[in-house]
Design a protein that fits this description.
heterodimer, A: about 475 residues, mainly alpha, two-stranded antiparallel sheet, 20 helices, about 0% strand, B: Helix Hairpins, about 80% helix
Amino acid sequence: MNLNFDYTLFIPEFMLAGLAAIVVALDLFAPQVRKSWLSYVAAAGLAVTAVVSLSWVNKDSTFARIYAVDNYTTYFRVLFMGTAAVICLASARLVEDKLRHPGEYYGLIILSTVGAIGMAAARELMTAYLSLELLSFSLYILVSFAKFDSRSNEAGLKYLLLGAFSSAMFLYGLSLIYGVTGSTYYSGISAALSAGTHGFSFALLMALVLILAGLGFKVAAVPFHMWTPDAYEGAPIAITAYLSTTSKAAGFALLLRLFGGAFQVVHNDWSWIIAGLAAASMLLGNLVALQQHNIKRLMAYSSIGQIGYLLMGVAGLSHNTASALVLHLTGYMVTNLALFVVIIAWYNLTGKEEITDFRGMRERAPLLAGALAGALFSLAGLPLFAGFVTKFILFQAATEQGYYWLAGIGVVTSVISLYYYLMVMKEAFVTAPAEGETHRLRVPYVMQGLTVALMLGVFYVGLYPQQLFSAIDNATRFLFV
Amino acid sequence: MESVAQKIPLEHFIVLSGVLFSIGVFGVLSRRNAVLVLMSVELMLNAVSINLVAFAVYTAPSLFVGIIFAIFVITIAAAEVGLALAVVLRVFRNRGTANIDEINTLKW
């Protein structure tokens, strides 16, 4: 067997690891450097690495058959690095005011990006598992990063215990797959399954259930969502944004690669499980969101609902649905980042995170209020914004696979979600500001720039999705080889 | 290696690991102390290691994939415990308890 040990394929990951080390070292050995500069260093490094990783476009190759560097990996590399850069920039003020050890904070964000990229690139179970744990471990620390805040500790503990439990289940599923098929390569698993393993079908079903339970925890699908609201509420707010974007997207990147590459041949054995998870997530996420009064918890349940829409694409997994799923995922990430930048900026200025504390945002910070409205409309799926087009394409792809009932639930729950998004907007636009809190707030230029850039992204996805969609279509081709 | 595979059928290992895994799951669901929950997760991970080594020996003795995988699992389990105990310690310092029923400021 001739294996390709081309270490240059890992250059972006090596660069990220080096960047993480540089950021930590800067914090340690250069105490006179202003700490907010660390966030700019981290964001600039991430941006440079994202540009470097573009040189692998249309170069399909793998490292020893375990780590694919194709368009799919490149797409997620750029997406994850961009997200991490936005999070680093957005958390500059927050880290300075509320947290200690900024070097480790940015270093861990960068390392978790490496893990997320590995999940998208892995074509072998051990690699996938190691990347998953790299991402998860970094996130466990980041969620409990506010060392002296007991809510952050509690969120970290819950996230960690449930995360460890779920990854143990995931791992048991992987070991059963290895036993059934005798291989840990996705291609080997697929070959063994298509050759027929009738004697082992029960073990295979059990393995699939355990793997789905483990990954369901990671992406927070109902009924494995219990940690989500607590972890979202307790975590530092920028980390909440990170949890709701990269951590979920990485889960889906792995899910698509694993199920497309290894289990597509036994599609009928697992599609009904995922369809059930999707329906439960859409319904529970959107219904429980109706009674939330904390913005972070609201976003937690809203993201659970969004996970339901995305799982719809996995249930009827094909090239078309995979493309639609990744497009919706991208639109969701851009929109969520825009929304969270607004929430972070507002939190920095007022120190509050209840929905009723958004009152008077229209008078006090019109730019933020406008972006808030746009992002919420996009999440609810109104035309012009990213959410409408991407959801439309996703639902259409699902119905092409025969999942009419799932698409129906999706449409109904989208309408329900509009209600609680509008409740947030009502506070920001209609309710008058409290006495003595009517003066204009000065939003820092970095946050203004980020808000505008992300809103442009939301409109770009919403109005001109063709270019993006063809890039994604070109990337998801590699899932089914 | 050969003699073990001849004397003991594979099913024994699978049953052992299944029982160990189930005890672990039961422990996670029933124990109220965070440290004991962690220990139960460790049991689950050990069940995985037994599975991987047994499958490696019985199905593909010439390849060491399963055994290497088991070593990685052990390493990661060690890292996980280190991380988790640090967080438990923080919670204990802030709250004076490691009982997960009493850690309930965040709900609904």
